[in-house]
Records
---
Amino acid sequence: MFRQLDYKCQWYGRELVKIDRFYPSSKRCNHCGFVVEELPLDVRSWDCPSCETTGIDRNINAGKNILAAGLAVIVCGADVRPDNHSVKGQLRKTRTSRKKQKPRS
Ligand SMILES: [Zn+2]
């Protein structure tokens, strides 16, 4: 699945960082870090109730969050890699049992 990306990254001398698929990239405000409870897929832009930023574009916001998460992993080894679930098994369990999570598109 990541073979193409791996190849491209090696070609361009870039580092590939994989992010947890349950990382709330769309639902997290990239301005203040607030995470909204629900963000249905048909909502393309939203307003942050915490910092009151308006018109947050779902995809651009997610892109900024994923970039920030990837940089956090490289710089300080942040805990957003998929591999870390074995260590945080407890946390994963409560997250998935709460509600069925649809895979993000
Ligand atoms: Zn905010």
Note: The chain has one domain: 3-98.
---
Amino acid sequence: MQRKPRIKVENLTYHYGSGPPVLKNISFETGKGECIALIGQNGAGKTTLAKHFNGLHRPSSGKVYIDGIDTTSMKVSELARKVGFVFQNPDHQIFHDTVAREVAFGLKNLRLSRREIEERTAAALEAVGLTEHCRTYPFNLSKGQRQRVALASVLAMRTETIVLDEPTTGQDFRESVQIMEIVRKLNENGHTIIFITHDMSLVARYARRVLVLCRGEILADGDVRSVFAAPEILKKTYLRPPQITNLARRLGRHSIPPDVLGVREFYELLVKIRSEKIGCCS
Ligand SMILES: Nc1ncnc2c1ncn2[C@@H]1O[C@H](COP(=O)(O)OP(=O)(O)O)[C@@H](O)[C@H]1O
Ligand SMILES: [Mg+2]
């Protein structure tokens, strides 16, 4: 059975006003349940591309389809039921005086009963670990917590696809992992995830596929391992693979494969190589 793409981008070109194109003839598809990292240097066009998925931008030419429907024929409110978008700066998304009101806001446009709104709000706050802050003024929270309020607002809408624009930028390691673990669970529960990041260790840890954007064009689209094992691709974007991948590549002639993504994997390889060597000498 052929699976319908969740997002299909076909020869997408976009320019702001009469300026030069910032996205140039982009094509790709995402399947249901994928977890994709969108990477590229500043100004590459990542945010501009992502805003096509929820109708904030419409193609100058080419097409964007969500669940097979051309976005130019859909209202932003219709797209909001299909694609949730967590903006880079949560403060641009937060308007209400309590966390619960903020999370409930989008639901009011869905014509749900009051009870369902309350249930969805409570479930979303629980999922992001903010239940105890339901009555807190959002701007009294930390940046990481505010990012989780923005994420809860998106979760409450129960969209199949969730796009996160640099969800961990400006946050410490603990807060970044907290957000990304929520994202991981969402993906495990079947949501299609696209996250934009500059942090290659998060890409290695959480994404399975990576789309590399460079000056408005797709430079690479593949599984994380193969893209990270090709340093010339990342070099063009001024991004570096995680240090552990660099180390593995340098140790290539010592039987270490060049596409190691994590410390645990590296450790297990070393143990295996060592035991094989001991085995062959005994
Ligand atoms: N509102 C805008 N008006 C004009 N140009 C813009 C606007 N927003 C972004 N750009 C330009 O579009 C290009 C891509 O920007 P953006 O999508 O924000 O990149 P990224 O998210 O990869 O950093 C950049 O050259 C940027 O200066
Ligand atoms: Mg951006």
Note: The pocket of adenosine-5'-diphosphate (ligand 1) is lined by residues 16, 19, 22, 40, 42-48 (CB under 6 Å).
